[in-house]
Amino acid sequence: QVQLVESGGGSVQAGGSLRLACTVSEYTASRYCMAWFRQGLEKEREWVAIIATRGTTNYPGPVKGRFTISLDNAKNTLYLQMNSLKPEDDGMYYCAVRWSPPGGACGGTANDYDHWGQGTQVTVSS
Q1: Would you tell me how many other CB atoms lie within 10 Å of the CB of residue 71?
Q2: What residues contact residue 117 under an 8 Å CB cut-off, 6+ apart?
């Protein structure tokens, strides 16, 4: 059984920073995609950061330059460093993993991911 657990969410002022963490109980494949998604009130779930096995990362325009995804293999922990937070960053943040992606491609389609954490809330006030 693969289990993902998020932590590190909270309330901050605009311009502040938070670092989210996601522990992964076990790896079931040598190739994978790991990602962070978020979902605000009355909004669709959207990807905010992706990291592939070889370390390649990808970010959408709204968070590029402000968010950084990383993976500590020794601790089996995925991180999301969030700087210069804005009220529009409000939402529930989820980590997710996709095993053995075809061709090693990692995209931001939620249905492609195999396991999800329960989420951690991020609130940004102005």
Answers
A1: 19
A2: 4, 5, 6, 22, 94, 95, 96
Q: Residues 73-123: pLDDT tens digits?
A: 899 999 999 999 999 999 999 999 999 999 878 999 999 999 999 999 999
The Cα–Cα gap between 78 and 22 comes to 5
Tokens linked to 111: 């249905």
3-state percent helix, strand, coil for the chain, nearest multiple of 5? 5, 50, 45
The pLDDT tens digits of the residues spanning 45-75 come to 999 999 999 999 999 999 999 999 999 989 9
Residues in the chain: 126
Phi, psi of 102 (to 5 degrees): -55, 125
Spatial contact of 78 and 25, defined as CB atoms under 8 Å apart: no
**Closest by alpha carbon to 13, among 105, 89, 67?**
89
